[in-house]
Structures
1.
Amino acid sequence: MKKKGDVFLYHQYKEGWIEAISGCMFAGKTEELIRRIHVLSFAKKRIKVFKPQVDNRYSETEIVSHAGMHIPCLVVKEAKEILEYVDEDDEVIAIDEAQFFDEEIVDICEYLADLGKRVMIAGLDTDFRGEPFGVMPQLLTKAEFVSKLTAVCARCGAPATRTQRLVNGKPAAFDDPVIMIGAKDSYEPRCRHCHEVMDRPRHYSLKKHEKEE
């Protein structure tokens, strides 16, 4: 901020950027996205909200948080369909469950931001195995602003950053399908130390660094 006499001058940034909200399940990603949408609605911004067709857990026509917050949205099967709905005068594009979209979502978000639109995305940064989820790593890299949220570990109460998948009450296996839509009956938040994946391959061994007994 610069001062000239009694007049304060503010730098006006050029519109157009990507902001990402990430974290594990039950961390409040969708709730935060809806909160931002409401704030911008009060400011009379022109907003379009999208979600992938595969996410139909709570509603076919709304994005819905686990806490029950909801807002109407446009449902698309593929990322490229988003461009069919975006108008020139739209100022904000909000996209929930971004991890379920194909790789084209990255270029679309970049394109919309370059046009001067505020692009807000929310999605899981890791899958149930704790591995990077779909296109989210690319979106997080491209975003100007990133908010990583945490939940509370269902076992020990520590900050949770992982999504635990349970099948018949037991941890899912590493080679199970990555995409399996569910809610509390099949998923829960866990911290690093309580997160379990059956038959996980060991990517790196510290054996050569261990002292010989």
2.
Amino acid sequence: MRKIKKGDNVVVIAGRDKGKRGDVARIVDDTHVVVNGINAMKKHAKPNPLKNQPGGIITKEMPIHVSNIAIWNPVTQKPDRIGFRTLDDGRKLRFYKSNGEQING
């Protein structure tokens, strides 16, 4: 089970976008995620008439390392760490380390 999942609200704790918040759009691999509105780069794209795609400069979110983000705790209004709990029926649940509250999802 991963500590950061798709749809989690996270905050950037290191790098150029430090302090910005966004939702995780997708998981790239074990160590990289794409966050909406974070780490946006400008890319030059050639036009592709077969895909009906115009050329020009496009803005694209690039992957960011999971060590540079932390999950946002809405109760404490601060970034937080994640722990795991195993229930009696064998399910694993994520929880916030600061207050012990369970994470939905």
